[in-house]
Amino acid sequence: MSVHIDIAGLRPEEAAVVPSPLAELGMALHALSEPAHHPGLQGWVTGVTARLDPHLADRMCEADFLWRTTFSDLFLPWAGLPDRRALPGATLAEELDQLDKLSDEQFVDAALEFTCGSGTGYGECGPTALSDPDTRRRALDLAAARGPRQLRFGERLLADPPRIRAWLRQFLRDCDEAFFAEAWARLRHQLAADARHKTDLLRRKGLAEALAAVSPAITLDEAAGRITVDKLGDGRTATGDGGLLLVPTSLGWPHLMVLHRYGWQPVLHYPVGSPELAAPQTLEQLAMRMTALSHPVRMRMCRHLARSAHTTSELAQVHGMTAPEISRHLAVLKKAGLITTRRRGRYVLHQLDVTVVARLGSEFLEGILR
After folding, report:
1. Distance between CA 151 and CA 311 in Å, rounded?
2. Other Cβ atoms closer than 10 A to 160
3. What is the spatial distance between Cα 296 and Cα 321, in angstroms, rounded to a whole number?
4. Residue 205: which residues within 8 A CB-CB, separation 6 or more?
């Protein structure tokens, strides 16, 4: 599974790397709501939470599904502007003005994203929840399935979009005053430096080099004119007559997100400054490793291979199996990259790569949250 971006006809100058204060505020809200996703931010989260005004904390819970269970495209409003070439604003105020420029239909469909696809924003053009009674009914049914708070929000959103717009704008301004302005003053320099570096790669070495620097999970097939992002989900979009935006975040690891909403400018929202991103495993490799370890015989073999190196004959004798049977299990473990093999004289020794196995938990988390 993966997300594809068709970039046929995209000119070099139509790809840009630009930080976004509103997108970073969205990631800050997510980290505050789901600190377990971001262990490296626990100190910051604890500090902000401790001094947060109780009234603002209550409002933060009122619609946290916009940034907790999903990352709403409302935090990337410039991507939805008509010419599909707009850039993020330099300040949060400028981006809030861009948010105001979205049509009511765009705003509502993006806000309903938490219902897991209730609207028609992704995939294909179709009726919106504001204009079509069936789509509206389905949106509310899905919101109700998520919980009573989500249903109340959905009802208010569909009944009076301008009121929810005003509520969200004021809430984001209050968050800026309470904690984000201080964080942005610190983070924007790192993001600007990363944007300059990626822009330099883009201009001097091309899009493929820039994307490789963003994440090994992103690949470019230049012949096919297609970007592929290795994610646990399917999606497809195209730059068409618009551009491609790369937006860095200092608060986002392990999330690598792709905005592929129908009719919006494609956006790669990627984390920077995290050593864990050096070489993320592909989801195919991760699945192969977990499958290899799920077999009871291979699990018992790993107990021995973790303690010492063994030959095929030794393993066959210990497990009461034939050498060919053991060889087949070893081949599965080796293909998954879980064991190392070395020769000592006329013997071939196999041993579990405990470093690789120890990383499986964090790689699983990174893979499913990417």
Report:
1. 61
2. 12
3. 14
4. none
